[in-house]
Amino acid sequence: MPTPHRRADITLPSRLPTGFSAATAKVGIRTGAGDDLLLLLADRPCAAAGVLTRNRFAAAPVTRTRRHLAASGGVARAVLLNAGCANAATGERGDRDAATSVRCVADAIDCPVEQVLVNSTGVIGRPLPIESMVAAIPRLAEETRPDRVEATARAIMTTDSAPKAVERTVAAANGGVIRIVGVAKGSGMIHPDMATMIGLVLTDAEIEPAVLATLLRESADRSFNRVSVDGDTSTNDSVFALASGAAGVAAEPTDLVEAVHAVCLDLARMIVADGEGASRVLEVEVTSAATAAHAREVAHTVGSSLLVRTAVAGGDPNWGRIIAAIGRTTAEFKPEEIRVEANLVPLFAGGGPVEDHEDAAARAFSDERVHIRIDLNAGDARENHLTCDLTADYVRINADYTT
Amino acid sequence: MPTPHRRADITLPSRLPTGFSAATAKVGIRTGAGDDLLLLLADRPCAAAGVLTRNRFAAAPVTRTRRHLAASGGVARAVLLNAGCANAATGERGDRDAATSVRCVADAIDCPVEQVLVNSTGVIGRPLPIESMVAAIPRLAEETRPDRVEATARAIMTTDSAPKAVERTVAAANGGVIRIVGVAKGSGMIHPDMATMIGLVLTDAEIEPAVLATLLRESADRSFNRVSVDGDTSTNDSVFALASGAAGVAAEPTDLVEAVHAVCLDLARMIVADGEGASRVLEVEVTSAATAAHAREVAHTVGSSLLVRTAVAGGDPNWGRIIAAIGRTTAEFKPEEIRVEANLVPLFAGGGPVEDHEDAAARAFSDERVHIRIDLNAGDARENHLTCDLTADYVRINADYTT
User: Fold this and answer.
1) CA distance B87 to A320
2) Are A42 and A19 contacting, i.e. CB atoms less than 8 angstroms apart?
3) Is pLDDT of B189 > 80?
4) Which of B122, B306, B278 is nearest to B196 (CA)?
5) CB atoms near residue A73 (< 10 Å)
């Protein structure tokens, strides 16, 4: 197997967008080195939106955040995040702890409690060390700084091997610049419907809360909801967007939309490339499907097949597993009309193998990025699914997580 | 991790039921040691049934077998099976090869071609060495013997670590005995809807073809269709049943039905215990579901969660992953009314963790068999799902299968 992705070439943005600041601390929520508590502040109440897990064991902080966004009409001053403990499946104590933590932030910065958003990530079923958090929050509120992008990204990492943050800028009409900074964590439990990833999309653009909510939902659908690492979704997954309006300039709405989409897609790709144990990125592209649902079903079935993903891990051009996965979908197609290729090398066509491509196929499956294209020849719909290979390291990382 | 299941204590049946004989040969379909071609004969035309893959890239031999069973009205004289090559996704050549092989058997034993059933298992997308098979079949037809159970089981193995065969007997009314012998292969690609497993259920009872078909369908639904190893289904999965009637005695129909069910369930359990890389068997039992569909969805979602299965591999009582999996189903439940236990140790109840059971929970997850019981407290439906843990060895086995 190849060495894991080289992530050293990722340069993190240096500053948060205008109007935001952050501080982090180590309060002992997780074992090991590094800060585990993050407080992000907006200088003044700003537009806020969230795309939150649909898991029915949604964690206490997720439930609370949902209520706060509804009560405030999409306005927030602060986001409190921690790693190491999900505060999920923690019963009434979990609800109390989430309430205590946001109340503590609201008191520290003197804002309505519903303007504080909160989430946690880590082990499910264990209580937060709430006393330590309460003790740390007032100091954090005084220490926030705009140049804390990397610290922000690191404070929410769980099994991530590297911090994930990205920046895009949009030129404003009057020559000014609008910035969008995205920060995310997540390497396992990544799946359509977002799983245990946590994302923050911050911009100094001025956007109405309702528009921001729609923009975030669309961006998540095009990015985070099209990736998977292990098919599990979680109790805490969420992406928050906050728009401070502090840039003081306006951009073309379409430029802004494109940039937010791009930030989310960049983060999604970083998450997949850092999938637990991942050695290769696997992209499954389905074209010419009869319907969007068929395209999605095929892309997802192939992209989440353990046998396909272990074949990619081994650099093994065992494309029969792709065929078997397509064959168990309900998508409309004629077997003899399907074409399958990997990194442009044809593998299957006319109902049988494409001869004389074995060496090229082996090379394709050994690339750092394996792009499988499936042409169903049944219509015009298409879909992409982004995942990573499934390696023995994935199992090692996940076989011993709580203990 | 514990050592793999000890399989040395499994005693295989010594003889096929009366009326059947088998022979095997090594014809070079797969590399490595051991026979790879099996011919099973019935002394005279007998009742035959098949439960065949619903995968839409069903292999050439599967398609042919389906046609033969329809044309013969469920009567067969022979079953030809091979390991090492699935003869799937092989286009017209695959169809020709399947036709050639059954014609060759029909000629050798002088029977109508539609009384020959055929299947293959192994790598998808490669052609059979049909000349070698054709050369071997006439000799095989002359060499069949009734004491060839182990050879039969071994000739269809792919990644299986041990041959799988089991026997049950039913007392007949007049003091005689009816025998049922089951043989199976399958360790990866096992999933509801049967995947790449191949099974043979042989009995010397006398059963009408239509009754045999119903009995086999029901038995498969209760056994093979409730196990999974990796969630992938395949192009070649099938279970065949043949009833020779050669015992010459009659049993209580309900006794016979129970015995066939038991044979299939035994085989399913052997397959799961021999799941690729498996170190532990995982059984997920869902009780008190509102509907059978809900019970099935929860059992299957938890049983196929990579995170649950890697936790079991690590002996790690990370039951939060079970909760997260339940939470992403559509089943009816109230989070605070669900109970989850592992090997009778309560883990989650009243919406939160059950305290003071951490040591007991760790022991439960370290057992050779981990039985997770989920009480949804929403109705009367129940379902079981049988699988194995997901280990680094699974990935190693599957990362390098064709090459």
Assistant:
1) 11
2) yes
3) no
4) B122
5) 11
pLDDT at A73: 97
In contact, A322 and A308? CB cutoff 8 Å: yes
Alpha helices by DSSP H, B195-275: 209-222, 253-273
Domains observed in chain A: 20-273 (3.60.70.12), 281-399 (3.10.20.340)
pLDDT tens per residue, range B109-146: 999 999 999 999 988 888 999 999 999 999 999 999 99
Between CA B385 and CA B341 the distance in angstroms is 15
Confidence of residue B60 (pLDDT cuts 50, 70, 90): very high
Q: B222 to each of B198, B217, B218, how far by Cα in Å? A: 16, 9, 6
pTM: 0.77
Q: How confident is the model at residue B6 (pLDDT cuts 50, 70, 90)?
A: very low
Q: Rounded to whole angstroms, how far apart are CA atoms B331 and B160? A: 35
pLDDT tens for residues B294-316? 999 999 899 988 889 988 988 88
Cβ contacts of B357 within 8 Å, gap of 6 or more: B345, B346, B347
Which residues of B, range 121-160, sit inside 8 Å of A by Cβ? 123-126
* Chain B residues in contact with A54 (beta carbon < 8 A): 328
Phi-psi region of B274 (alpha: psi -120 to 50; beta: other; left: phi over 0): alpha
Measured distance CA(A26)–CA(B240) in Å, rounded: 62
Q: Ramachandran region of residue A110, left (φ > 0), alpha (ψ -120 to 50) or beta?
A: left
Q: Which of residues 310-329 of B touch A (CB under 8 A)?
A: 310-311, 313-321, 323-329
**pLDDT at residue A211, rounded to an integer:** 95
Q: What percent helix, strand, coil does chain B show, rounded to 5?
A: 35, 25, 40
Between CA B140 and CA B144 the distance in angstroms is: 6
Q: What would the two tokens of residue A143 be?
A: 């220490």
Catalytic residue, chosen from B196, B287, B301, B391, is B196
Two structure tokens written together for A222: 């095009």
Mean pLDDT of A386-397: 82
d(CA B164, CA B157): 9
Q: Which residues of B touch A399 (CB under 8 A)?
A: 1, 310-311, 313-314, 316, 391-392
Cα–Cα distance, B37 to B39 (Å, whole number): 7
pLDDT at B233: 65
* Section A247-270 average pLDDT: 91
Mutual angle of helices B306-313 and A392-399, in 10-degree steps: 70
Q: Is A294 left (phi over 0), alpha (psi -120 to 50) or beta?
A: alpha
Phi/psi-derived region of residue B60, left when phi > 0, alpha when psi is between -120 and 50, beta in every other case: alpha
Helix, strand, coil shares, percent, chain A, to 5: 35, 25, 40
Chain B residue numbers touching A324 (CB-CB < 8 A): 55, 57, 88, 124, 189, 232-235
> CB B31: neighbour CB atoms within 10 A?
7
CB contact under 8 A, B233 and A328: yes
